[in-house]
Design brief:
The chain is an alpha/beta fold. It folds into 2 domains: about 140 residues, Rossmann fold; about 160 residues, Rossmann fold (3-Layer(aba) Sandwich). About 40% of the residues lie in helices and about 15% in strands. It contains 12 helices and 9 strands. The strands form 2 sheets. Strands 7-6-5-8-9 form a 5-stranded parallel β-sheet. Strands 2-1-3-4 form a 4-stranded parallel β-sheet, with helices on both faces. Strand 3, helix 4 and strand 4 form a beta-alpha-beta unit. The chain is globular. It starts with 15 loop residues before the first helix and ends in a 5-residue tail after the last helix. Bound molecules: N-carbamoyl-L-aspartate (NCD). N-carbamoyl-L-aspartate binds next to helix 2 and helix 6.
């Protein structure tokens, strides 16, 4: 399998076989991700990390991954300190990153921005989130987490909860889970339902997700509960946000009604949707999930550079 020079824009660009290959490759990266083994596989390579939107995990884990592989990274976390402020187009900014580096990671508030960036770059472009669109590297680390915890992906009953309308992580994940044949339930306030196109994509893969606004019943038989933040910054109207904020809260009381082996995932940041008391239970997988961003992104950086390591 050859990923050299490949852009990673949407999880839909990958077959199940390719995803399986990436997950196996990521497994081999774990000792390097933990700093137990050392490699210089990407020595001399430079990553541009272009973040036009706030980020903690995605940016830091990409940069850490590049460092762990012996490469280096340049970039910005705040576009107001770049020539964007002077009116430079995205295409020109990308042309510069292409000239200065070997791989480009981009997060941008506009859907389609990563796909556009890839058109202007010879270097592979990795989409770190484009508006409410896609977040394929998060999706791969989410799949990696389910795969390593549950030993398989498809045979799980999985609940996606929260802001399914604006949450890009769930758009990518719903498709990928359907590809693996997982049983899916989408729980959200009525105004934040999963977009029709995503539901239709699941249907085309033979999966009919249950859609509801009631969590208690949905979570009873779940193996995985994937919680998301209400995406305040994407609401066109503050009134609408105020109506749904605080709709769901995961706490120990709710967890006393679920399977003991239920795992709770969250792409983070969490705000109020998971009570901190849950952090101390065996259900809480979200911090481990965030760590998994390193082996998975190391695998991707290595693969798009030609499978070095
Ligand atoms: C998510 C994102 O940016 O889409 N965070 C992440 O990448 N881990 C989720 C969110 O912001 O709610």
């Amino acid at each position: 399998m050859n990923f050299k020079g490949k852009d990673i824009i949407s999880i839909k660009d990958f077959s199940k076989k390719e995803i399986d290959y990436i997950l196996e490759y990521a497994k081999k990266m774990v000792p390097y991700a933990k700093g137990e083994k050392y490699t210089d596989a990407l020595k001399g390579k430079i990553l541009s990390s272009l973040f036009f939107e706030p980020s903690t995990r995605t940016r830091l884990s990409f940069e850490s991954s590049m460092n762990r592989l012996g490469g280096r990274s340049i970039g910005f976390a705040d576009p107001s300190a770049t020539s964007q402020k002077k009116g430079e187009s995205l295409a020109d900014t990308i042309r510069m990153a292409d000239a200065y580096s070997d791989i480009i990671v981009i997060r941008h508030p506009q859907e389609g921005a990563a796909r556009l960036a890839a058109e202007f770059s010879e270097a592979p472009v990795l989409n770190a989130g484009d508006g409410a669109g896609h977040h394929p590297t998060q999706c791969l680390l989410d799949l990696f987490t389910i795969f390593t915890e549950k030993k398989h992906i498809g045979k799980n009953n999985i609940v996606l909860l929260g802001d399914l309308k604006y949450g890009r992580t769930v758009h990518s994940l719903a498709y990928a889970l359907a590809l693996y044949g997982a049983e899916l339930t989408f729980v959200s306030p009525a105004s934040l339902k999963m977009p029709k196109e995503v539901v239709e994509e699941c249907n085309e893969l033979g999966i009919e997700p249950i859609q509801t606004s009631i969590l208690d019943k949905a979570v009873k038989d779940a193996d995985v509960l994937y919680v998301t933040r209400i995406q305040k910054e994407r609401f066109p109207d503050a009134e609408e946000y105020n109506k749904v904020v605080g709709s769901y809260k995961i706490d120990n009381k709710l967890l006393s009604t679920t399977k003991q082996k239920l795992i709770i995932m969250h792409p983070l940041p969490r705000v109020t949707e998971i009570d901190p008391e849950v952090d101390y239970t065996n259900h809480a997988l979200y911090f481990k999930q965030a760590f998994n961003g390193i082996p998975v992104r190391m695998a991707l950086l290595s693969l798009v550079s030609g499978g070095l390591l």
